[in-house]
Design brief:
heterodimer, A: alpha/beta, 9-stranded mixed β-sheet, 5-stranded parallel β-sheet, 9 helices, B: alpha/beta, two-stranded antiparallel ribbon, 6 helices, about 30% helix
Chain lengths: ~325, ~260
């Protein structure tokens, strides 16, 4: 068993950028053991995607023609299983994305491969592959290994590895996968609701509220505070899920990435990985939280352990 | 029809905690045990289908966990599930998500389930593996990260929505039987009534071992797993510059930083 197999992720004819991060991680692992990196592109029209993954570090690109354009779990599972059987890779690397959640563990369970998900560091200890990931809301890290497993499926956390952008010179070939019985059928994609009154991706200064504001009746006072200090109001997932603020104000993986923001005040947000995905890059983050161990403090520039209501009360007086 | 809902009792950590002596996990003395948040939503999805189709849907809650985990089943009974099953024995200790999924799949088979619901993720270890791994064991169709669900009991397909990155959703028709992993926000989980809680305290919980489900010793625990935790540790993390003082002093400093950066 040798070599690294990466499966490219794409949607609506576009490569998902996280794929280039996975290739970066594969290249780093390749350097450790001198393995080859193969990138599989699965789809009915793989050419364009195949060109997009021809970046530095990739030795081989394999196009797998299947009956669907977009992800379908049974078809992907069957195609990747056939590729693994043919190539016997030591490591199969996928993005830790919603698509992968839907089939990576299935692949591993059916064939008895090792399986590690949401991994952000990967190395060898002798011949043993060791993956590092988080537990308990990022308060702990854990190293996992895969005793006796010749092939291991790994899904990699996004925003961790610097995407490879330099052009490459991989060989390109075709692989014919057996047909699969697709037991789900995509009906349609539904675009997110309009950006509403504001487009938070354009905001330079944001104040977001999380679970810490406790109840819907408190939203108003924080909306007023945001206005007073001149910030665009955002929120974390629980606040949008509860319907206290519209979805278009949600920052995070399933919400928006605030790409133009340079100052972000997080009020009562503990800082889940999903929320961080939308705001971790912001240069100046000020976090207010009652829990001194909240993971938001590990990415914030300034941390304030305090009750958000006390801070709300005091802060507005400086701007009136 | 019968829906099996997999429920996990998860651990949150106290502010201060210590590792176990073997260094492979956190000392359970520092655990705050609670029901996995995602599972509240999958349970609610099942209960709503049961209520909308009176007399046609049976809901069975199952957990794999020690005596403490009985609490999550009592909570499910209080909310109105028809039956609760807890699977545990010493050999199950050390099981990863794939071994837990093997057990849960056996329960689904034993119960003659038509659907299995699980949380998309658990808040403690966050592997996002268990639900679809149940489907792999049963060789059923599956959809992960479901935030919309419509079904008429007995129909050959359900219509679900899958929540993708960036707020995009995909509507999918899924063949039954199926396993769905449920995302936060799909519904508003109910609270149990006081009467429900009182009644649930006296209801029976079926207790099973891996052997009762026809599983061998090497199919559970570390031997039956696809991964093993070899070390758990507290990471060295970046740390914000902490602003100390009274709330008034802290707010004054925050105002200063904002004004400086916005100038």
């Amino acid at each position: 068993m040798s070599g690294i197999l990466v499966v490219a992720e794409h949607r609506d004819g576009e490569l998902r950028p996280i794929t280039l991060e996975v290739i970066a991680a594969a290249s780093a692992l390749k350097a450790e053991k001198g393995q080859t990196v193969t990138v599989a592109v699965i789809g009915s029209n793989a050419d364009q995607i195949a060109a997009a993954v021809n970046v530095a570090g990739v030795d081989e690109i394999v196009k797998v023609a299947v009956s669907v354009d977009n992800f379908q779990s049974d078809i992907y599972e069957s195609a990747v299983a056939a590729l693994i059987a043919d190539r016997s890779p030591a490591v199969v690397m996928l993005p830790h994305s919603i698509d992968s959640w839907g089939y990576a563990p299935v692949l591993a369970v059916k064939a008895g491969y090792g399986c590690g998900t949401d991994v952000f560091a990967l190395t060898y200890d002798g011949d043993d592959l060791v993956a590092t990931r988080a537990a308990y809301a990022e308060k702990c890290h854990q190293e996992i290994d895969f005793p006796g497993k010749d092939t291991v499926i790994i899904t990699l956390r996004g925003n961790t590895f610097k995407p490879v952008e330099e052009a490459g010179s991989a060989s390109v070939s075709d692989f014919s996968a057996p047909g699969a019985d697709a037991r789900t059928q995509s009906q349609r994609f539904i675009a997110p609701e309009g950006s509403g009154e504001v487009d938070i991706t354009q905001a330079e200064f944001m104040m977001s509220v999380g679970r810490g504001i406790q109840e819907e009746d408190n939203v108003e006072m924080f909306a007023e505070l945001a206005e007073t200090i001149g910030a665009t109001l955002g929120c974390s997932r629980p606040v949008a899920d509860a319907g206290w603020l519209p979805k278009y104000r949600q920052v995070g993986q399933s919400g928006k990435v605030v790409s133009n923001c340079s100052l972000y005040v997080a009020m009562g947000i503990s800082g889940s990985v999903q929320h961080q995905a939308g705001m971790k890059h912001v240069e100046n983050i000020i976090a207010v939280n009652t829990d001194p161990e909240a993971s938001i403090f590990s990415i914030a520039k300034y941390g304030v352990v305090a009750d958000v209501f006390d801070i709300e009360e005091e802060l507005k007086s400086h701007f009136e | 029809m019968k829906i099996v809902v997999a429920i996990k009792q998860v651990a949150a950590l106290d502010e201060d905690f210590e590792m176990r002596e073997d260094g492979r996990g956190v000392d359970p003395d520092f655990f705050e045990l609670e029901i996995n948040e995602w599972d509240e939503f999958s349970l609610e999805t099942a209960l709503q289908l049961k209520e909308a189709n009176e007399g046609q849907v049976e809901v069975v809650a199952v957990t794999v966990g020690d005596d403490d985990a009985e609490d999550v089943l009592r909570a499910a009974l209080a909310k109105g599930v028809d039956k609760a099953i807890r699977v545990w024995d010493d050999e199950i200790e050390g099981s990863d998500a794939s071994a837990i999924a093997r057990i849960l799949a056996k329960v689904a088979e034993k119960e003659g389930a038509d659907m299995v619901f699980a949380g998309a993720l658990s808040s403690d270890h966050s592997f996002a593996q268990t639900g679809v791994s149940i489907a792999a064991n049963l060789d059923w169709s599956h959809v992960a990260v479901v935030n919309g669900f419509e079904y008429t009991p007995g129909a050959a397909q359900a219509t679900v929505r899958r929540e993708l990155e960036g707020g995009v959703e995909e509507e999918i028709a899924v063949n039954t039987p199926c396993v769905l992993t449920i995302q936060l926000g799909i519904n508003e989980p109910r609270y149990a009534s006081l009467r429900g809680i009182k009644q649930a305290a006296a209801l029976p919980i079926e207790e099973l071992s891996h052997a009762d489900l026809g599983l061998d010793d090497d199919q559970v625990g570390e031997a039956g797993s696809l991964s093993r935790v070899r070390r758990m540790f507290t990471p060295e993390k970046g740390r914000a510059e902490m602003i100390e003082g009274t709330a008034a002093e802290q707010a004054a400093r925050i105002a200063e930083i904002i004004k400086e950066l916005r100038a």
